[in-house]
Amino acid sequence: MNRIVKKRVLAPNVNEYVIDAPLVVKNARPGQFVILRVDEEGERIPFTICDMDKAAGTVTLLVQEVGYSTAKLAKLVVGDGVADFVGPLGKPTDLSAHKNIVLVGGGIGTAVIYPQAKALFEAGRPAAVILGARNRELLMYTDEFKRAAKSLYIATDDGSAGQKGFVTDLLKELLEADRQRAKNGIDCVMAVGPMPMMRAVANLTKEYGVHTVVSMNPIMVDGTGMCGGCRLSVGGKTVYACVDGPEFDAHEVDWADAIARLSLYKETEQAHRCRLTDETAGGQK
Amino acid sequence: MAIDRSPRNRMPEQAPKLRAKNFDEVALGFSPEQAKAEASRCLQCKNAPCKSGCPVGVDIPEFLKAVQTGDFEGAGAVIGRANSLPAVCGRVCPQEEQCEKLCLRGRMDKPVAIGAVERFVGDFGLDKTPAPYDGPRTGKRAAVIGSGPSGLTVAAELAKNGVDVTIYEAFHRAGGVLVYGIPEFRLPKSLVRAEIDKLLRLGVTLMRNVVVGKTVLLDELTDRFDAVFIGSGAGLPMFMNLKGESYKGVISANEYLTRVNLMGAYRADSDTPVQRGRRVAVIGAGNVAMDAARTALRMGADSVTVVYRRGREEMPARAEEIHHAEEEGVRFELLAAPVEILGENGAAAGLLLRRTELSEPDASGRRRPVELAGSEFTIGADMVIVALGTSPNPLIKDSYPAIETTKKGTIVVDGRGMTSVDGVYAGGDAVTGAATVILAMGAGRKAAAAILERFKGQ
Ligand code: FES
Q1: Ligand 1 neighbourhood includes A229 CB (under 6 angstroms)
Q2: ipTM of the complex
Q3: I need a surface site. Which of A46, A274, B172, B390 has the fewest CB within 10 A?
């Protein structure tokens, strides 16, 4: 059993969990993920490792309630354990070849770029960071980013924090300014967030010819290269996010394909959610 | 002794119509009387050819003799010397191509139903607690990667010989393909659990949720253990790169079976979703394809069609599985090659197929299908299950390049089952590519013997 040692609410429906996982953290590196099952009937759900403390043997995950299983997870409190916890999975991120990096995080994708921002900061070459959310309430980790980022830019859909608009608006300004200056140019963008956002970033950076990495979050079961559920089409080839990724060259990803596959279990998920709401409503039937 | 002339006994089965709607076991097993009667059909040949057909070398006449006299426990002990999973093997081994194929009784009438008797003996022993090993300890430690058939076999053999064994399993449940691949109606999971519990009572340590190559690295294991066995199984499902393969409703057999079996998606109380096709097409004709097809029926499909580009003769699945599938109502579209998966609004709607004709045998020894121009036709399908085999898992190789692999990615081993790294052994599908449970167990036995030999010399 891996126990929850800390829990805090970061935004509506978004919890940060610090989980005791000494075995997982030992060989973990930024960019990798874990799979957990809440209980004996639970499904296997993947989460990117958002932060880790090797000395304490803990990993930090951000969990957004998006379905039945994450809602179940959200009910757990400090001291509770999850039935299964496995990782680190996937390949770690390697941004070492790049000097001038912009990290773009949309919504829960913030959880994935935070360890990158931290690692780059610790390596002495902090990145520029762009965060996007629907509104101020949904912004996460702004204080942490303020510390770790070279500069922090924020966009919200309603303008309640930062600039009103999308992350792509801000990114475009940066790329445009960079093009004018034309020295020490931005040589890499890493974008993580909802697939449509990542696609929009990919389209934009393509115009500017800037190498772009995205972290994909397709449906997964085993996470070890066994089921093929996480397959994506990248550069015309079938790849598996859990072993070949989760990061890929954004300009090579077949976005239409990836977005279509993501909606696979929408209907079943809906039915499950109803079940949970029934249960939470007093627990009587 | 007079020869027993009675005909081969058949295990009772659930009626096809009934069983196609439930996940209970199809074959119901022998009664003690049937087992005794069937065992009595054995001719007790001196140089029993059946034995040479068994990949793990069970002393078949001897265990049948014990069954004949009603000594089921004794029979279990005989099998146990060579096979640590008799209840599993009695169910999933292709006996018709192994022991029973060589059975001399088969020349008189029909071979002895060795598999069915083995199954009976295995089931009989399931709830009997094995005596914990109390012989001398070797003081040696071995790590086993993967808890499928090969890993379990190595673990059992070593534990029985006084080695401290730790099994590392990536999934949350032990058993490998026995729990994620082979469906409940062919191999009840409670039985796999019982077999594994027996093993743990021998003193084997099981670490679940540990991915070797990620959670712990192979060199950490070689540092800590005197020998390592890799039984990580087959890997990623193959796709055909057909147009339409990313449509909703197109799924690998591995994923489909894992969702249904391991994650229990067929039960209402499981959280894991699975697509339920109404008209299901299964591409491929091996045992996994049959498992997927029969599972789809049980998940409520109106029709299930197996699509295969060769003919009936060439189907790689066991005859019994094909027969069971057919009885249950699975249809076969043979001599048909998939050309494209047709879709509607991003979801699978059918298959475009092309007729084939068989020409001379290819490298695999099977006749090569040739597509006939202009013979296209379509079948409707809202779910397409791809069961075309697997390619080896890259995880261990990626994290430990010193391990030599073939071009295909399977691990290279020598005659004793040792890899290019001293003290690291491998067996099962990771070495052979997708094969049978019993071949994996045979490889496990060989590697275990080599490991014990090595320890003796140290
Ligand atoms: S999640 Fe199963 S292969 Fe990647």
Answers
A1: yes
A2: 0.87
A3: A274
